[in-house]
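FIELD: query
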Amino acid sequence: MTIINPGELGQPRGWSNGILAPSGGRLLFVAGQTAADANGHVAERGFVSQFDQALGKALSVIAAAGGGIEHIGRITTYVTDMEAYRASRPKLSEVWQRHMGHWYPAMALVEVSRLVDHDASVEIEMTAVIPDREPGASA
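FIELD: result
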C-alpha cells in the first residue's frame, strides 16, 4: 500500500488521505462489526471497550482472509455519540496503538442515531487488499 497525502490538504493526524493498493491483490470488504457477541448481545457499555472489541473483531476478519493491518486501505467508524468519541480520544489512541501500531488507513468517522445491535455505540467496517498468494502457497 502506498500512502497518498497531497501537501495542499495539510498534514493528516491519525489517518491518511488516500491509500493506493498494489495491483494483483484481492479486495476484502469487512462488514460493520460491533461489540456484540455471537448472539447479538452487547454486554459492555463503555465506549472505549466497545471500540476495542469492534476493532478486534474487524481485524479478525482481515486475519482470517490471510491479511494484516498493512493491507487495510479504508476504515469507516460509526458512533452514536460524537462527544463520547471526542472525550475518549486519549484512551482510543492507546487501543489503536495496541491493535494497529502506526498504520493509519484512509478513514471516516460518522455519527448515527443508532446501530442495529441494541446497546452498541460503535460499529467499524473496513476494506482491505489482500495480496495474492504465491503459486503453491498454503491458505
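FIELD: remark
Strands lie at 2-4, 18-20, 25-33, 72-79, 106-111, 122-131.
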